[in-house]
Amino acid sequence: MAKLMALIAYDDSQTLRFIRANLRASGYRVVAARTDKEVLVQFEKTKPDLVILDFKLPELDGLEICRQLREKSDIPIIITAERNLRHVVECFNAGADDYITKPFAVDELLVRVNALMRRVKNKFNYSLPEEVKLGDLIINFAQRRVIIGAETIHLTPTEFKLLTYLASHVNCVVPHDQILESIWGDDFRDCIHYLRVSIGRLRKKIEKDPGNPEYIVTCSGVGYMLRNLCGG
Question: How far apart are CA 102 and CA 108, in angstroms?
């Protein structure tokens, strides 16, 4: 089986070498970039399986690069930055799948990278049909497509996993910690802000009025529920 390819974008050469060496030691092929232009060129050239971006890059920052990559692909993206709740929210709003606080240890980096790749590659063992219709919302699990009316909606890998998980419990309230553990892993059971931001992004994409959602409803203090507007 071919090794997975990771694209790393850092202007700090020491950190870049640190990440590159450890990913290679873990079996990844690695290509590096130090500027926004290099990221976009290498992305088109190498077609990586994973992108790790630093929040701060020359010219375009990691957020803007993330947005541009999201227009092209649903590739898994991790952004690294200093501890700052506003940065976390901005990263997820830009389309990142995960966020790692600097400075980070190699063990944390590898755990997060491998967990993200498992989320992307592994299929849920849910008893789901090939497709479900919930009012105007259609989720095709076989093709990984989400349709609202006649429009195909582009979701990141994490957003699709989140919607799939909610669809496996349609019309049932799913607790925050259960969602977080299933989508992000055991270490994220208390990271409510991760879930809140991701739910907000999903609502912007599938709801007519994200501020007054019909599909993904909040059960205050408990969790979220995906409603079937067909009534079934």
Answer: 11
Q: How many CB atoms lie within 10 A of CB 200?
A: 16
pLDDT digits (tens, 9 = 90+) for 136-178: 999 988 788 899 988 999 888 788 889 999 998 889 999 999 9
Contacts 24+ apart (CB under 8 A), 91-94: 91/55, 91/62, 91/63, 91/66, 92/194, 92/197, 92/198, 92/201, 93/197, 93/200, 93/201, 94/63, 94/64, 94/66, 94/67, 94/70
Residue 5: strand pairing partners: 29
What residues does 139 pair with on adjacent strands?
A: 132, 146
Q: Which residues of 145-179 are buried (b: 16+ CB within 10 A; e: fewer)?
A: ebbbeeeebebbbbbbbbbbbbbbbbeeebebbeb
pTM greater than 0.70 (yes/no): no
- pLDDT on residue 185: 75
Q: Sort 185 into a burial class: Cβ within 10 Å, 0-12 / 13-18 / 19+.
A: middle
